[in-house]
């Protein structure tokens, strides 16, 4: 007899290949993945009940000293268990007091399995102010660059005419539309939208309306649907909408950004904006935590490390850290020399739940992602 430790990603397929029966595959799969859920401001009564219930089924709850004698009325705790444990507790706590009923309703969301295919969103900027000069282009280059991105493996091409780098200043709607109109017309004329999905990086109603009427399918709004008119237009075209978090605006966002708890505050923001989008009839939503948009290096790293948390909403997660300054803060490098750092961030983001990667270097990302998937899909 020989033994070796294994790493399982696709648990259902692994147990199928092992020869387990169909009923056993589902049961074993739910027992194979361990989850740790941070619970903030849990009533001490709830903590004692949840601790005992967790232990009774083989899970556990990490709590501060003094919980058993109710030293503090509210405490933070960490629930540790498998998918099966969380599902059991989601039923068990429905009849319990001290807020456990509300917790029970959300537990299953945190172990939801989302089967989203990884997609590459290539970046093209129709302006002279984008921070990475190699992403800039004009209409004379449009067809060549679009066809190259498609050949290199892009699933989506994101086009913007206004820079959102720190310190950038917004432009008038008519100026933005003028910058992008010829390029959009070229895309429409050549029917490139039949080969790849096009996204507009804008929060201008006039621009968004024009591009959605010319083959674009996605609205990438850095303001997170702040403008009701954008919601109305996106809904009328049944467009997919990217809701991004940004603290303040590009002119102020990097001036001492502060959060009491960056994960919880962004979670609350996304929840509110999802509800707003749904109220306008928008159904196809993507979430973006906004790396570099009103965040310090520590905020960015915490969001990347805990990205899986935001999967509980059930929507695709987009990450765009391509060549951003956070890489330079970790290991000094010019914008042109940040590809390796970009790939490291984006591959870790995929591991933590991202399925749409917004990047400048499509060919290199396509190769890196294919190798990553080959490693993780082997059983």
TrEMBL record:
InterPro entries under this entry?
DHP_synth-like (IPR045031), DHP_synth_dom (IPR006390), Dihydropteroate_synth-like_sf (IPR011005), Dihydropteroate_synthase_prd (IPR016227), Pterin-binding_dom (IPR000489)
Cofactor(s) needed: Mg(2+)
One example of the protein's molecular function in GO is: metal ion binding
Q: Which GO terms describe its cellular component?
A: cytosol
Query: Quick one: a GO biological-process term for this protein?
Result: folic acid biosynthetic process
Record field: catalytic activity: (7,8-dihydropterin-6-yl)methyl diphosphate + 4-aminobenzoate = 7,8-dihydropteroate + diphosphate
Pfam families registered for this protein in UniProt: Pterin_bind (PF00809)
Q: Indicate the segments forming the Pterin-binding domain, all copies.
A: 118-370
Keyword Metal-binding applies: yes
> Which segments does the entry list as coiled coil?
none
Listed pathway(s): Cofactor biosynthesis; tetrahydrofolate biosynthesis; 7,8-dihydrofolate from 2-amino-4-hydroxy-6-hydroxymethyl-7,8-dihydropteridine diphosphate and 4-aminobenzoate: step 1/2
Which keywords describe this protein according to UniProt?
Folate biosynthesis, Magnesium, Metal-binding, Transferase
Q: What EC number(s) would the UniProt record show?
A: 2.5.1.15
> Which NCBIfam families is this protein grouped with?
DHPS
Q: Please state what the protein is called.
A: dihydropteroate synthase
Q: Which organism is it from?
A: Arcobacter venerupis
């Amino acid at each position: 007899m020989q033994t070796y430790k294994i790493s399982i990603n696709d648990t259902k397929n692994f147990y199928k290949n092992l020869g387990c029966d169909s009923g056993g595959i589902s049961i074993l799969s739910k027992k194979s993945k361990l989850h740790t859920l941070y619970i903030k401001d849990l009533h001490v009564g709830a903590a004692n009940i949840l601790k005992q219930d967790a232990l009774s089924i083989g899970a556990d709850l990490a709590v501060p000293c003094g919980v058993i004698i109710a030293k503090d009325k509210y405490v933070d705790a960490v629930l540790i268990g498998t998918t099966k444990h969380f599902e059991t507790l989601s039923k068990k706590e429905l009849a319990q007091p001290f807020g456990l009923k509300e917790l029970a309703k959300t537990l299953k969301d945190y172990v939801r399995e989302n089967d989203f295919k990884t997609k590459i969103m290539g970046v093209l900027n129709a302006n002279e102010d984008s921070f990475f000069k190699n992403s800039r282009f004009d209409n004379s280059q449009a067809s060549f660059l679009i066809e190259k991105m498609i050949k290199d493996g892009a699933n989506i091409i994101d086009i913007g005419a206004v820079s959102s780098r720190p310190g950038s200043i917004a432009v008038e709607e008519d100026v933005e539309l003028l910058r992008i109109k010829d390029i959009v017309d070229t895309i429409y004329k050549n029917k490139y939208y039949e080969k790849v999905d096009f996204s507009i990086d804008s929060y201008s109603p006039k621009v968004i309306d024009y591009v959605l009427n010319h083959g674009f399918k996605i609205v990438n709004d850095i303001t997170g649907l702040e403008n009701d008119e954008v919601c109305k237009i996106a809904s009328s075209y049944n467009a997919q909408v990217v809701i991004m978090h940004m603290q303040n605006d590009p002119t102020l966002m990097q001036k001492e950004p502060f959060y009491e708890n960056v994960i919880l505050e962004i979670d609350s923001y996304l929840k509110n904006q999802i509800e707003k989008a749904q109220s306008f009839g928008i159904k196809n939503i993507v979430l973006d935590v906004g790396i570099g948009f009103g965040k310090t290096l520590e905020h960015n790293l915490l969001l990347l490390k805990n990205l899986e948390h935001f999967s509980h909403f059930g929507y695709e997660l987009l990450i765009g850290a391509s060549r951003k300054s956070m890489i330079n803060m970790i290991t000094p490098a010019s914008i042109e020399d940040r590809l390796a750092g970009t790939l490291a961030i984006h591959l870790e983001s995929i591991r933590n739940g991202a399925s749409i990667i917004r990047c400048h270097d499509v060919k290199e990302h396509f190769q890196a992602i294919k190798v990553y998937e080959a490693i993780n899909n082997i059983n």
